[in-house]
Write a structure and sequence with these properties.
Blueprint (H helix, E strand, L loop, with lengths): L1 H22 L6 H16 L9 E7 L2 E8 L2 H12 L6 E4 L2 E2 L4 H15 L15 E6 L2 E8 L2 H12 L6 E4 L2 E2 L3
Length: 180
Amino acid sequence: MRRSLLVSLFVAGLLMPFASFARTERKIPARAVERIRRRVRHEILMLPEYNVFDNIVYKVEGYNVTLMGEVTQPILKSEAENVVKRIEGVERVDNRIEVLPTSNMDDQLRFRLYYAIYGFPALQHYAMPVIKPIRIIVKNGNVDLEGVVDSQADKDLVNIRANGVRDVFSVTNHLKVVKS
């Protein structure tokens, strides 16, 4: 009995360094992480249902990807997860995307906001790209503006246009100014 206990402790002592080695995180090449980032972005932008009223953001930590943001259709949440899971090198996907509640009032607001922003002559150049740079997220009458604009003046103008839309309860402007 005592001998088997000593043998067990000896074996456990020998294997202990290997157990701790297996638990340590492996060094991930920066090139691999950057490749995964580019692929995640590409796959999300290529989703057929992804539109100006959806906002999907992501975080890549090694071989793990966390999806966040808001979408108007439940299918988009699951499709985003599925395409990211298939990216070579991705080991785990944490899908934290929120599906916005279904609401006729919010749907009407989305279209009024779209035309107030993208239909305004000084902002029409933002309507040109297929992937619109200004994301309009509406939840229960509250609006979040996400994305990028070229200047502080454009950011302020988008905010004024969104606040001028009837039935909007609040506007939170998260737009970032980025020189093109």
